[in-house]
Amino acid sequence: MRKVMMIGKIGCGKTTLSQRLMGQAVHYQKTQAIEVLGDGILDTPGEYLEQKQFYAALTVTAVEADVILLLASCVDEQNAFSPRMSSMFSNKPVIGVVTKTDLAESEEQIEETRELLEMAGATEVLEVGFGDESCVAKVQDLIEHIMCEQ
Questions:
Q1: pTM, entire model
Q2: What is the dihedral sign for C-alpha 82, 39, 146, 19?
Q3: What is the rounded distance in angstroms from the CA atom of residue 136 to the CA atom of residue 130?
């Protein structure tokens, strides 16, 4: 796998998805700084998205990434992504990932989150419920597909 950068709010599932993509057992750990996991996942702290003074760290780190994943939990009522936010990542492919779909109370929650990620600039949006292995495989397959096109 080449480098994939994950961006999202605190608690949206970045570290969990990273661990699942690497085939590791899922265990909660608070990401305190940008971490390189395995051989290619850049896991960013949620504070880097939530506090604008850290945007420079996201743009600098994105230089090292081949693909950017924007993650948003469909059960979170607040959006942290601004419209066309993907433009700050130097034309890198940007994929949106709606997380925690297995916890959604309605399809409307999932659809609203999908729309927010599309407005942020995600060219494709996937849905992930962490109880479903096939969802994680879809994310992995899309990342590999994009890598082959580059």
A1: 0.90
A2: negative
A3: 8
Tell me the C-alpha distance between 39 and 76, whole Å: 30
How much of the chain, in percent, has pLDDT values that exceed 70?
Answer: 95
8 Å CB contact between 128 and 97: yes
136-146 pLDDT, tens per residue?
788 888 887 77
DSSP run (H or E) holding 145? helix 133-149
Angle subtended at Cα 32 by Cα 62 and Cα 134, rounded to the nearest 5 degrees: 65
The residue assigned the tokens 């940007």 is 94
pLDDT one-digit tens code per residue, 75-126: 998 889 999 999 999 889 999 999 999 999 999 999 999 999 999 999 999 9
Nearest C-alpha neighbor of 69 from the set 39, 41, 102, 28: 41
Q: Using CA atoms, how far apart are residues 135 and 126, in angstroms rounded to an integer?
A: 8
Cα-Cα-Cα-Cα dihedral sign, residues 89, 94, 99, 101: positive
On whether the CB atoms of residues 98 and 128 are closer than 8 A, the answer is yes
Q: Which residues pair with 143 in a beta bridge?
A: none
State the Cα–Cα distance between residues 75 and 110, nearest whole angstrom: 8
